[in-house]
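Hey everyone, long-time lurker, first post.

I ran two proteins through the pipeline my lab uses and got sequence/structure pairs for each. Pasting them in order. The first:
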Amino acid sequence: MLSRHLKSANEMIADNPDSPVLVKTIDMQKGYVDSLHQHQWHQVIFPLKGLLQTQADRYQYLVPHTSALFVPANLSHESVALSNTTFMGIYINPKLGRPYEREIRTISLTPFIRELLKEIHRSNQQSGDRDSLSRLLDVLHDQIAKDDLLTFKLLLPEDRRLKLIFEKLTDTPELDWSLLKWGECVGASERTLSRLFAKEFNTSFSLWRRHLRLIYSLSLLDENLSIQTIADKVGYQNDSSYIKAFKENFGTTPQQFRTKGEIVS
């Protein structure tokens, strides 16, 4: 279920074609699917709480409270609420702003970026000086254009057999089958699967599975579960192994990640 604004983003855009930016706050209940769609304007997805999963082309992006996602205009995407989620959609008019590359970008939510997005929201609500708002959007453009510091994304497999493994592991990430066992399940030799993982993901099966498990643990960190319970649910024998892998992959501990969020009023 969606709430907060009765009008859709595209309806707001149609009603305000000359605005430099529009802002919409959206609540999604866990499990809600915002089916494949696109916007004529650029969009910044800015989570206030909860966890979104957005899919575009062959990638799944997880958008937790530590990052925002930039989606360029007219790029089809689909979003799913993995927990009860509130996020701010900031829509940037491509006719009035700076040009953007046609690619999804992850924005690390540093304190500066949080304040910048909040200030854009406030300026938009107050219908203030357009020149001031344009300067804020210029700063946002510079931040979006930076190299990604941290991206919670998964490349989706193309091969039918890898798709079966992906679907099974996303349902039960704790499953600890060997590549030989997976081969028996999907109808391929261990050697063939190893070659396919190297071809499609440029990595080994074990490293790919580790990344998938860590990505999917992000949704569990948004729930009231102990770190040990989360480690069990994503296939780690103990919490210390999970914490070590999480820190190596994301540069922070699970508990630090969990407590980093900030609710924006």
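...and the second, right after it:
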Amino acid sequence: MRKLLGILLMSVTLWGGFAQGADRMIVVSGTSEKGLDPNMVTMTVEIWSKAQTAKQAQSLAANQFKDVKKVFEEFKIKKEDIQTDNYSLNPEYVYDQKAQANKMVGFRVVQSLMVTLHKVDDAGRFLDALVTEKQTKESGVNVNSINWDSDKRQQAETSALADAVRAAKVKAEEIAKAAGVKIKGVSRISHGAQSTQPPVPVMRNFAMKAMADSAPTELSAGQIKVRVEVTAEYEIN
């Protein structure tokens, strides 16, 4: 029993010593931000059609897709940069006031594609090229979102991380100097990263756009901001 009490007392003493040592810390944060020029842009291209029968709607959508595919080929977009994100075929209804019930008037097909361009300067011309004379009130193309990005994002984040750690260390050294203590070493470092992108244009419907009177589309890529923040705990004596 005495041996057990001795072990427990030793454990409490050691834990108390560790806890006291853990309190001798300087906790600081450091941040860094890097700006990147986008070198790629991803768009959600939506092909839609509607008709009285499902087969007619599918046929219209297929023809519309052929025209869109020609645009992809014209801008030399690789197959791996085109992905079907969604395909739906659903009946369309309108409310019949007399019958006070929904009445089916036909079918609607929607196919969404995620498309990535690696030449950001072509983005405006690419959108304009999606407009064709074959587009009607029964079928067309929408662009629902545009996201700018860079394949150098990881390198920028790594560079910003190193700068943030250095900034945290400078803070810790200044605090230690002012407090009359010295830094023994780093106990713990954690970090987080976030990025902000240029504003995304609102959805644009190209099916009803008049080609003759349309000015060329211009898109501003702006810059991608990569921000890294670290929290560091430094042991002091």
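Reply from user beta_strand_b:
Welcome! Quick read of the second one: The mean pLDDT is 83. Residues 40-149 form a domain with the Alpha-Beta Plaits fold (CATH 3.30.70.2970).
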